[in-house]
Amino acid sequence: MIAEMLSYPFLVRALVGGSLISLCAALLGVSLVLRRYSMIGDGLSHVSFGALSIAVAVGWAPLGASVPVVVLAAFFLLRITENGKMKSDAAIAMISASSLAAGIVATSLTTGMTTDVSSYMFGSILAMSPGDVKLCVGLSAVVLVLFVFCYDRIFAVTFDESFARATGVNVSAYNILIAVLTAVTIVLGMQMMGAMMISSLIIFPVLTSMRIFKSFRAVVWSSGAVAVVCFCIGMMASYKFSTPAGASVVLVDLGAFLLFGAIEKIRGLNKG
Length: 272
Hints:
The protein is mainly α. The protein has 13 helices and no strands. It is 83% helix and 0% strand. It is globular and about 55 Å long.
């Protein structure tokens, strides 16, 4: 079955692009989940849907128009929460609902729910073009290189901002870096998972890994591996049973979470 899947160029593109996006989302998700920013992916995906819908309505390039908008939204969210004027969950909910409403109104007044708009809402990874894959590879490489290069500082900012600031780390700059990398990953993953399920790529692999591993480094490595493996299994299940790719990946992520939870329970009983 794997050989048959690899004989189709559109499936190869989907596997390459999806694996890279899943890996980036999982690595960034470790910091976001530990800092209780896990729902920022959901909020930014709605911002991205609003920007994409407006871009499609006026005839602009969807990805080119949405990336700067989502990056600005991520920066705005961080500024609000850092100033203490609004809780992070309230800020995410406010921006998420407003952006989604703007996108729906723009769509209803112009083109209507076209195939392009629908694919960004529910995902359509099999429709990735060679250009989309090249964009995914390039931006994913940037995300991975920056994450590896700034690993120690991201670790410090994640666990203790006050200590990191006292040791000379520019906490605000690294918060912005994490937000920008997350925003880029969200926009890239929209076509794969859609606005409805993109946050699962950020949350599930991290929560799954944390069931067994306790150190930051182990959770990072495990999250990346779980994300890529679950994505590939989800794509195979989608091909085998003719189910939507995004939903299949999420269900495989859920299965991995339950499996790791069972392993955690067994280990606890053995120690007891």
